[in-house]
Amino acid sequence: MPTKPARERARGALFHTRIADPRGDELLPLSMLRERYPDLHARHSAKYAGREHRLRERVIPLDCAWSDVVFLAPLDSTMLFDAARSSGRRVWDGPVWTLDAARLDPERCCVRLMRVSPGARSADPGTEDDYLPLTTATLRAVSEVTDRALARLRNLGPDEPLLPWGDVPHVLHRGPIPLDLFRELPRRRSRP
After folding, report:
1. Would you say residue 188 lies in a domain?
2. Tens digits of per-residue pLDDT, 170-188?
3. Of 14, 54, 72, 149, which is least packed with CB atoms within 10 Å of its CB?
């Protein structure tokens, strides 16, 4: 019986906000934090208050739940947080980690296209059409912040949810990622 050829590994950079005090030697998805580090699970689960259903959302190509994946970004988040700051929000201002996408098994990864409808309190639900394989071409296509995302963040009202990643494609990895695969980027600030 013929075997399916292995997918080529994507080339390019992925990003994650630096973890201040990492525990263990892996970046864990939320579902794994529950058993290993209940205090961290409680802190990170709180980000989903009022939208807990998102944790059960299926990540169709990876056949798992939203809480079973580690979220990576196809772009440096500095511009997103600077745009949110320009709306008067106090937001994270820490370092960013980078990771060579080729270090990840593409069978355990996908790209989820994201969008936030005006007035929404959460990103719109995904459909099977919102998922793409993690390839070099896909990564290149989603690695720039859109004007729409920056405009939404720059014009946030005081009662609107921040959702900095709401309009930015997510790179999802099923399961933990070894911390030694990440490198810290030099600190820099962009201008929104």
Report:
1. no
2. 999 999 999 999 998 876 5
3. 54
The owner of tokens 């995904």 is 126
With tokens 């005081």, the residue in question is 158
Cβ atoms of residues 136 and 171 within 8 Å: no
Domain presence at residue 18? no
Residue 101 one-letter amino acid: A
Which structural domain range is residue 63 located in? Answer: 25-178
Q: Is residue 13 part of a domain?
A: no
Span 50-90, pLDDT tens digits:
878 888 989 999 999 999 999 999 998 888 889 999 988 88
Residue 91 near residue 84 (C-beta atoms within 8 A): yes
Q: How many domains does the chain have?
A: 1
Q: Say what angle helices 78-86 and 147-154 make with each other, to 10 degrees.
A: 40
Beta bridge partners of 131: 112
Nearest to 179 by CA among 33, 11, 16, 38: 16
Spatial CB neighbours of 147, under 8 Å, sequence gap ≥ 6: none
Nearest to 114 by CA among 134, 92, 132, 89: 132
